[in-house]
Write a structure and sequence with these properties.
The chain is mainly beta. Helices cover about 5% and strands about 45% of the residues. The strands form five sheets. Strands 7-6-9-4-12 form a five-stranded antiparallel β-sheet, with no helix packed on it.
Length: about 300
């Protein structure tokens, strides 16, 4: 059970696997979502290792003129192969970029309970974060610092974040504070995954600081109105669905950029197209665009 637990966390939080994991119409947008139409191939590739990282959705209008507001984004990801029971899945809402956040901690060695933490640094320079683990009575158990390189993702079990501290018991209930450190005080994106054995759910980080927008980056066209999703997984038995909603009364053009944990482009097949950057996407006024790997019938996994 602990082996399954470890493998599942590594997959979901972007450590590349050495071996492959194997053995209804959601999006109603424009033609780009294919609206469950048949296609000549299957987007899934379960025979290759899982690719995992993060995604950024950017309104194109934010790089030219006009408004960048009105974009709502969420995702669902999980393991395929559930047969009639469907895909084992978890939903993710994009967290605010933060310089001060907190996660609930509930770990138990004999119950295989642990907390996975993924931190994405979208800034142009390395970010240093301070970590403080506290018990449920508020007393500190351990502190540590972690450097997240520019445009990269770091993911670890909570128990791995404090490997140099022997005083941490295997069973802990409390909180984990994640605070930007140093003079730069750079904002990061944080998400938690709560595990018990092979079961998992997302655990949003509570932002205790003012909301910060995604910083500009010429290489990825990040800027005003951009949304960062700190977890994305494809292939090797895993898939991710991105749902983009336009709440404006006029159409909105967007682009989607996918990145591996090391910040390099992540290529995935969505809606019949294989790429790491999906450009020229248009969401109808008050409409929805869904991007997901689809089978030959045009159906996705969710």
């Amino acid at each position: 059970m602990r082996r399954i637990f470890g493998i599942l966390f590594i997959v979901l939080l972007s450590a590349v696997l050495a071996v492959a994991q194997g053995n209804s119409d959601h999006g109603r947008g424009n033609d780009q979502s294919r609206e469950a139409q048949a296609q000549d191939h299957d987007d899934h590739n379960d025979s290759v290792p899982v690719q995992s990282g993060y995604a950024v959705v950017t309104p194109v209008v934010a790089t030219t003129s006009g408004t960048a507001t009105g974009l709502v984004v969420f995702e669902t990801f999980g393991m395929r192969g559930g047969g009639p029971n469907g895909t084992t899945q978890a939903g993710v809402l994009p967290p605010d970029l933060t310089t001060n956040s907190m996660l609930f901690v509930d770990s138990s060695g004999h119950l295989s309970k642990n907390l996975g933490v993924a931190i994405v640094n979208p800034n142009g320079s390395d970010a240093t974060v301070s970590l403080t683990l506290r018990k449920n009575d508020g007393t500190p158990l351990a502190t540590s610092t972690l450097t997240v390189p520019s445009h990269k993702q770091t993911s670890k079990f909570m128990t791995e974040l404090f490997t140099g501290t022997s005083s941490i018991p295997s069973d802990v209930t409390g909180t984990l504070a994640i605070t930007s450190a140093g003079s730069s005080n750079l904002p990061v994106s944080v998400i938690g995954l709560r595990f018990r054995g092979s079961n998992f759910s997302t655990l949003p980080a509570t932002n205790l600081a003012p909301v910060t927008t995604v910083p500009s980056s010429a290489s990825a066209l990040l800027g005003a109105g951009a949304v960062l999703l700190p977890q994305f997984a494809a292939n090797g038995g895993w898939s991710t669905e991105l749902v983009l909603v336009n709440t404006n009364s006029t159409p909105m053009n967007v682009r989607v950029d996918l990145y591996k944990q090391d910040g390099t482009p992540l290529t995935a097949s969505l809606n019949g197209t294989s790429n790491s950057s999906f450009t020229g996407l248009s969401i109808p006024a008050n409409g929805v665009l869904t991007l997901a790997p689809r089978d030959k019938n045009g159906d996705d996994d969710f």
